Amino acid sequence: TVSVLYCARGEGGFKKGIKNKPLPTMSSPAPASSPAPAPLSPATGPVQMQGSPALSPLAPNNIVVESDWSMAKKDFGPTEPLLSEEPTEEELKENSMFEQQIQATIESTNDSEARVNVLGRIERLIQTWMAKLLRVKKYQNPEKHGGRLFTFGSYKLGVHFPGADIDTLCVAPRDVDREDFFTSLVKILRKHNLVTELNPVRDAHVPVIKMKFSNVQIDLVFSALDLDRIPPPSDFSIGADHLLRNLDDASQRSINGARVAEKLLHCVPSIGNFRVALRGIKLWAKNRGVYGNIFGFPGGVAWAIMTARVCQLYPLSPPSVIIRGFFRFYSDFVKDDVPANQPIYLTKTLDVTNEYGKKSWNKKNEQFELMPVITPMCPYMNSCYNVGRSNLQILCSEFKRGKRIVDSLKTDAEGCWSRLWKPSNFFLKYKVFLQIEVSALDSASFNSWSAFVESKLRHLVTSLETWPSYSEIHEIAKTSYQLYIRLWPFLFCSATPSERLHFKRAEEMTAANTDSESANPASQGKEDSSTVDPRSQLDDPTISGYYFIGLDTCEQRVADGEARQIVDFDGAVDQFHQSLYSYGHKTEKMLYPNITLVKRRNIPSWVLSQHEKDELRKKDEALAARKALRAQERRERAAKKKEPAQAAAAEVKPVSEPSATDTTGDCDVEMQKNDPSEAGGS
Questions:
Q1: How many CA atoms lie within 13 A of 591 on its CB side?
Q2: How many whole angstroms separate alpha carbon 313 and alpha carbon 79?
Q3: Which of 87, 152, 431, 511 could join 258 in a cystine, given CB atoms 3.0 to 4.6 angstroms apart?
Q4: Quick one: three-class SS letters along 81-92?
Q5: Residues β-bridged to residue 551
Q6: Which CA distances in Å does 32 have to 23, 73, 320, 530, 604?
Q7: Helix (H, G, I), strand (E, B) or coil at 645
Q8: Is the peptide bond before 379 cis (omega within 30 degrees of 0)?
């Protein structure tokens, strides 16, 4: 806390007991000596809709808020602010430069309007489907009971990137259940001419329908409330606690996203500054490979909560100052050498006295969760429950790196932001990787199968952390797990069939099946389709994607005098394969993943970016230069060793050769050769 207070204002530090100037109200303008933060323009802030689409309740910016100055006067968060001063001219100039850096994360007005139009069409489609369904169930005036569509996630918060998906929630009355959602609605969507890549995922932690509607990626979840009808927007608030009554766990998790997004926007002093700062944090997290709840890193909600907490600590600061405070705060607050960190939350307290408190996060019951980031809506939940020990250490390392960069802001303001979200050198840092190949025989099977395998990858990382053969390396080296295992949270797919990788593991599995057939007399004479590798039956049978886990080494030093041996990962891999057996919708078109150890030079070239290729080429050139230098040094050392011997040989007086007439000498020499005793005696 002391270091955070010191870093709050850079070199000047944070003065304890400082008297803040009275904040201007909506009726009194800001003092001329201390200008208010400049309002966000459409080029640097959330996109403002033009015309009627801006009035849609589905638009992310359709929320009535007070001015930044009046909001800053309110009391936010569980603690007092670290900095309650107005921004200086230097900070506003710095913020202008920061906003220019993130312009690429803002989509165009046309794309924003297209999203709003798509959401309107989906809402009308859902209302038509629900009216027909309720009419079959003998409802009178079913149109008046119809459902509503809500947005949440990055789109609701107004920080979505171009091309990002839209998280949506379908709310229905009690007589429309989830079975109707995944049957009759899915049938309608399959026949719709604007719907592509439809993928219903019933068994997910939050059941969802994934699809593209008019080329816009949509994630649609469902929740049936304990109501006879859904009230009109003027009489309905998604944040009301009574809506949770009699909901099952899946419905509660589905509705929780919309409730959290709605509440989160009311927990920050300035929504405009929060949105711009969160865009910068998301850009940094994605480029550094620390984004994605499914991979064991904080997801979009968690990063939003963490950014909102810093906004509470810096209520009047512009986004650039919030970014600096973000890294200075979390580099000190989040630690990787403690059993569990203190919770990060936005509300005054985490105590819940109503009937929904039983399911809320509790520090005593969840004491082993490493990084609790608590949602601001009841029931409170930890949005970072997936974060493991290795990923926590990666996060701490990235926080410290970010702090080092923002501390250099005054000396290099323009280059600071570019260095902050410079892509991670994952493929340059590690030399050995665990490569997971996910394959299927058609695109629909691949989409659902890869999504399920992706959800299990963090368990593979946990197995590698605790597997004895791998742990033994660190015991020998007497070091801790610091960035030794790292899952890269991206799926790499090749569009060129010739660039697919073929592994021996698939051939070995086919051979094992053939051996089992020969051992069973009843199976001889007929071919079972389950024992034949489907990839051998087609020229280009599979659609494949690849995940990579970076490892510090794949070899283990043994006792002195013995050779190196490859560390055995089979136990962890088999355990991962067993976790995939729980997928109840697996078909023959979905192939079990091939997992192999590969060296960096064997990774396909299309996986690496041009920057990584250039860096690897420089490394190869430097390595070749070092090898040439060592070879030259060896030759020079060998030449130096020969010089004394040559000098000694030159100092010895050469023996004169006997003349041709001296036959006695010749006889003496011949005698010495034939008589060793004489030679030795002489």
A1: 27
A2: 8
A3: 152
A4: CCCCCCCCHHHH
A5: 432, 485
A6: 13, 19, 22, 78, 60
A7: helix
A8: yes
Query: 250: which 2 tokens?
Result: 């899946």
**What is the model's pLDDT at position 653?**
53
Query: Is the sign of the CA dihedral 407, 412, 414, 416 positive or negative?
Result: negative
Structure-token pair, residue 141: 């005036």
Residue 17: what residue type? G
Of 132, 167, 133, the C-alpha closest to 149 is 167
Reported as type and span, the H/E element at residue 647 is helix 610-651
Helices (H), 370-488: 389-407, 413-420, 426-429, 443-466, 468-477
Per-residue pLDDT at 501: 38
Q: Is 150 helix (H, G, I), strand (E, B) or coil?
A: strand
How far separated are the first and last CA of the chain, in Å rounded? 91
Peptide bond into 78 cis (omega under 30): no
pLDDT at 475 over 70: no
Q: What does the alpha-carbon distance between residue 248 and residue 354 come to, in Å, rounded to a whole number?
A: 18
**544-602, pLDDT tens digit by residue?**
899 999 987 655 444 444 445 556 677 888 888 888 888 878 888 898 899 988 888 88
Q: Which of 34-43, 350-359, 596-605, 611-620 has the lowest mean pLDDT?
A: 34-43
Question: For the chain, what's the residue count?
Answer: 682
Short-list 434, 438, 435, CA closest to 452 = 438
> What are the distances in angstroms from CA 588 to CA 1, 543, 592?
56, 14, 10
| pLDDT greater than 80 at residue 478 | no
Q: Are 58 and 156 in contact (CB under 8 A)?
A: no
Q: Say what angle helices 271-287 and 300-313 make with each other, to 10 degrees.
A: 130
